[in-house]
Amino acid sequence: MVTTASALDQPFDEAIAYLREKASVPTRSWRDVWDAAHSKMFMVAGANSVALVDDFKAAIAKALEQGTTLEDFQKEFDQIVKRNGWSYKGERGWRTRTIFETNLRTAQAAGRYAQLTEPDTLEAFPGWQYNHSGAIHPRQEHKDWNGRVLAATDPAWKVMFPPNGFGCGCFVTPVSMPALRRMGKRGFDRAPDLDQLGTDQPRGVDPSFAYNPGEAWLRQTMPGPKAVTADEANVVHFVAASLRGKWPEGSWTVVGVHGDDVAGALGVEAGTELRLLADVIRTNAAEEISADAYATIPRRLARKAKVEDRGDGSFQISKTIDGDEWRASVRVERDGNRTRVLLDKLTREAGR
């Protein structure tokens, strides 16, 4: 029989595996890797070589496997910085604590999710409870979520499975149906409203934390376009929100910037934005173009691609990307001195 103790206190092999399976990715900014991409990529903001990132990854892995402390990590951090000649931004204490705690907590969260979703455990504990860390200076939303029990299958966990921000120490515990009744609950609680007016960033969740580490890690991603940067993730959120009707007609987001060659063929200045309208997303929903494709493919079509003039300001841009033939129907509109390029349709022909 699965018990609460056995569900939570297994050796944490899953957390270690989560970290070990990540690819080391050099970056220039913390915005280079975003949301669920963190579950596939290990990065330290501004660490710009694989060797440097590998050293940090090994240090965090040691903390998971051997239980080394923040103080131990800080000593190793100094050695890594010196060995690699890295000049970092920010105060040492803040940087080391952020790197150490964020990576440990996300690894532990991923490992915990893997444990909780084992079939036997999920059958015994169909509910999960959100627990606030008890921090002295809490985020009000996290405090409000404390004690809330949602079904393990509730879609809200795709976004609000902690940690939900830098320094967030919140955690999830499993709840059986008998335990739910002992709490005086007749059923699972309703998920909190995570929508915020004027932004696609979920309420109570810091930027780049709007994902479930364990779910993203365990999901076997198929080959194809995947949004990983902040700009790309913003497009993904915009597409999803537009399909829900959150963004009204006329709302738009930038999905690319035209390079010299494509801009010249379109008759616009290099650097002109390629815009995607919310109503275009809804109109073309039947095409089944993923949000990730909208976030990544137009950016690549906007540079070094074939352009065909269809007349009356309409063009088709095409390019083979990762073996597939992608085409974008775009429209150039001019109003006095103002010019804008709009994406009307994105299509894909699978490679053979």
From TrEMBL:
Domain of life: Bacteria
Alphabetized Pfam families for the sequence: Phage_Mu_F (PF04233)
InterPro entries hit by this protein: Phage_head_morphogenesis_dom
Phage head morphogenesis domain segment(s): 55-172
Protein name: Phage head morphogenesis domain-containing protein
